[in-house]
Design brief:
single chain; about 260 residues; alpha/beta; Metallo-beta-lactamase, Chain A; 14 strands; about 35% helix; about 25% strand; binds zinc ion; binds fe (iii) ion
Length: about 260
């Protein structure tokens, strides 16, 4: 398998996933069609499928044009998003699997950012859209803190620590600054922030992360950290400080960071 990140719009990533034995490929979250079709041509692969992580325009914006340019493409997304994802042909839910050439793709339903958010698992990689970012998570547009807690900590968090995490936006540097704000003594955060600043200064992408890195640096996966709990108590003295409530407050703090 080869994975090629394609920067789209101002800070989105689409990912071309290539099965090297068959030359077949899928595109995760084509925000726009032009950079995707250019990449498909350059790589000389056969585009077979669109894998949408959720229905937001900055993740499906290229669907219609790609369907015109590559007739017969399968379009995958959550089964509840039939009316919201252009061209959806195969609605999925947790546990559903499909083939991309000889690669097996598994779906995980992880609501929180939207009700129909899904991640795709291929070999030791997961494509998380706007559910899990490096050191962050998406805003709770249609879900609750309990949804996002379960999606990050149980569903995606159930994968091995070595799993590579391919996320939907280049927000890593800002996310780590916030992580440092809520957990200043976390040295994994300060070390990763230094690395990421250097990478961004040279124009490099910060994708992928790993699940191990996320357990160490992502405040939304560290709701039992004493430092974060103390920070939340300061912010909201009446809070019950249960992990889900902690995530809710941390998310609110991030919304206005
Ligand atoms: Zn989104
Ligand atoms: Fe997005």
């Amino acid at each position: 398998m080869r994975i090629i990140p394609i920067p789209c719009l101002s800070d989105n990533y689409a990912y071309l996933v290539v099965c090297e034995s068959s030359g077949e490929a899928g595109i995760v979250d084509p925000s726009e069609s032009a950079p995707v079709s250019a990449c498909v041509k350059k790589e000389g692969v056969t585009l077979k499928a669109i894998l949408n992580t959720h229905h937001h325009w900055d993740h499906i914006g290229g669907n219609k044009e790609l369907l015109r340019e590559f007739p017969g493409l399968k379009v995958y997304g959550h089964k509840s998003d039939q009316a919201r994802i252009d061209g959806l042909s195969d609605g999925l839910d947790t546990g559903d699997k499909f083939q991309l050439g000889s690669l097996q793709v598994g779906a995980l339903h992880n609501p929180g950012h939207t009700t129909g958010a899904v991640s795709y698992v291929i070999e030791d990689c997961v494509f998380t859209g706007d559910t899990m970012f490096a050191a962050g998570c998406g805003r709770l547009f249609e879900g609750t803190p309990a949804n996002m807690y379960a999606s990050l900590n149980k569903v995606i968090g159930g994968l091995p620590e070595t799993t590579r995490v391919y996320f939907g936006h280049e927000y890593t540097e800002n996310n780590l600054r916030f992580a440092q704000f809520v957990e200043p003594d976390n040295t994994a955060v300060s070390e990763k922030l230094a690395q990421v600043k250097k990478a961004r200064a040279s124009g490099a992408f910060t994708t992928p992360s790993t699940l191990g890195d996320e357990w160490r640096t992502n405040p939304f996966m560290r709701c039992e950290s004493e430092e974060i709990v103390a920070r939340v108590k300061q912010e909201d003295p009446a809070n019950d400080l249960q992990p889900i409530s902690v995530l809710g407050v941390v998310r609110r703090m991030k919304d206005s960071f």
